[in-house]
Amino acid sequence: MTTTTNATVPAQQPAPVPHHFLLTLQTGDGRIFTNDGVVQVIPDIHTRMDTLKAVRDQVMQQWGLGGQSIVLFFALEPNQL
C-alpha cells in the first residue's frame, strides 16, 4: 500500500537587494537634516513606503530627533552603476 502526502514546499524568499537612499527631513522647529546610506530591500516584500518609514525612523533615531518631522526629499535607487 502506498501513501501520498501533499506536502508543500515553502517558497523561497527573494534575496535582499541593496538600495542607496537620500533623505532630507525638516523638524517642527525648522531644523533640516539630510542623511544617506544603504538599506536592504526585499523585492515583492518591501514597498517603497515601507522602506521610507524604516529609513526615516532610522535617521530620526540616529540624529536623536523626537516628535514630528516632514520629508522634504527622498530618493531610493538600486545601489549599482
The biggest beta sheet is recorded as: 3 strands, antiparallel
How many helix segments? 1
- Which segments are poorly predicted (pLDDT under 50) over 5 or more consecutive residues? none
Distance between the termini: 59 Å
Adjacency order of strands in the biggest sheet = 2-1-3
* Percent range for β-strand residues: 35-45%
Give the secondary structure arrangement, pairings included.
Layout: E1 17-27, E2 32-41, H1 48-62, E3 69-78
Antiparallel strand pairs: 1-2, 1-3
Task: Give an overview of the whole structure.
This protein has 81 residues and is α+β, with helices and mostly antiparallel strands. Helix content is 19%, strand content 38%. It is built from 1 helix and 3 strands, in the order ββαβ. Strands 2-1-3 form a 3-stranded antiparallel beta sheet, covered by helices on one side. The chain is elongated. The N and C termini lie far apart (59 Å).
Question: What would the keywords be for this entry?
Answer:
alpha+beta, 3-stranded antiparallel β-sheet, 19% helix
